[in-house]
Write a structure and sequence with these properties.
Rossmann fold; single chain; alpha/beta; 18% strand
């Protein structure tokens, strides 16, 4: 997460370069969501709000749309809504998106969606109780809420730019997990699972992840091969440096970069093998999965 995206989100629609950090995050999140689709036989999903602290807005659910899931989004910025529509059109995928000024009301019938989802976005809901009440009402099978790992080393450094005066519409307290777990329990939803995820080789810091790998770990990215497979060079010397290429999941979604997911998963060593104690201080996000009480 990074607060500056509140002001510079437009730029990602111009250049599409999300960098290594968000690109890895996309693939890991896709895996989480696609597993839920299979487990709960999800046919419809709502993401509200769809604007979170990561790269290109509104594309968290493209992978689900490609699997035939009906996607509904909500956003609180009309210009961003139009940009999201155009981006989805360019990917050849369909979804519906609505404007929602404050997320106090979700204007859908009861149990409209098999899955409802929020990723680094709870702080844009101006009234958490009303939002969760609505989310519980329109959800049928499961609710997935993901928030930044507040115990992570990078979290507080990412908040250095924050103050209530500068960002009065950002409700930091809303990502406090005991609060939303308690509220959803009262609304008839039980916590089924919580898990730390998005745990790559780099900490959750604002610097370029490519620079971190090269300068701290001696690992340098190389350009994409024609086959779509990756090239990672450990201990690369200055003589074989190549200019950093833009990095985006969009080519993968268009079927033009089949090796994208494999390249990102090369950085999943900690994701797969680190202890929970280590992930508590290193992972970037934590998700909470809820099911309706019997």
């Amino acid at each position: 997460m990074a607060i500056p995206i509140i002001n510079n989100w437009h730029s990602y629609f111009e250049h599409g370069d999300e960098g290594l950090g968000s690109s890895y995050e996309r693939i890991i999140l896709n895996n989480v969501l696609l597993n839920l689709v299979a487990k709960y036989e999800v046919k419809s999903v709502l993401e509200s709000p769809s604007f979170g602290f990561t790269g290109l807005s509104g594309i968290n659910l493209v992978a689900l749309a490609k699997e035939g899931v009906k996607v509904q989004l909500e956003d609180h910025d009309q210009q961003r809504i139009q940009m999201i529509k155009e981006l989805w059109d360019s990917l050849g995928q369909s979804m519906e998106i609505r404007y929602n000024a404050d997320y106090r009301v979700l204007d859908y019938p009861d149990k409209s969606f098999d899955l409802t989802f929020s990723f680094s976005a709870l702080w844009f809901c101006q009234d958490l109780r009303l939002y969760l009440s609505e989310l519980a009402r329109v959800s049928k099978k499961c609710i997935l809420i993901s928030v930044p790992n507040r115990s992570g080393l990078g979290y507080k450094s990412q908040l250095q730019d924050y103050s209530p005066e500068r960002y009065p519409y950002l409700q930091i307290s809303h990502i406090d997990s005991p609060s939303f777990i308690y509220l959803l329990d009262k609304l008839g939803w039980t916590l089924k699972e919580s898990k730390l995820f998005d745990c790559p080789l780099w900490p959750d810091i604002g610097m370029s992840k490519e620079d971190f790998l090269k300068n701290k770990l001696g690992i340098k990215l190389k350009g994409k091969k024609q086959s779509g497979d990756a090239a990672v060079d450990c201990g690369a010397s200055a003589s074989d440096r190549t200019e950093k290429e833009p990095l985006s999941i969009l080519g993968y979604y268009r079927g033009e970069d089949e090796g994208f997911a494999r390249r990102m998963m090369q950085y999943s060593l900690l994701e797969r093998h680190a202890t929970q104690a280590f992930k508590r201080i290193w992972a970037h996000h934590e998700y909470f999965l809820f099911e309706p009480k019997p």
